[in-house]
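Tokens help. Consider this.
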Amino acid sequence: GGYGTFHPQCSTILLNDAEHPVGVCLLNIVSPNEANIPLIGLAKSERRHRLGRTLLASTVRKCIQNVLDGHLQVTQISATVATGNLPAIRMYRH
């Protein structure tokens, strides 16, 4: 679709101690050389603990490893964020 092709091997799911999903960072391939992170989501109970940064870093590392392993040719990773979402913008800039 308009957001590219979902790439589950590079996406990250965060589980709590009970192994229930509480966070996700998705990665899509939007062109042969570009990946995009359209969504990082955390349960309200997990916010403000910098777990979004952990999800983002894990997803980027997975993408880089897929490039190094020859599975992807990505040279650029972008992110989609609403202009008014200041906490997300700060996280991406960090």
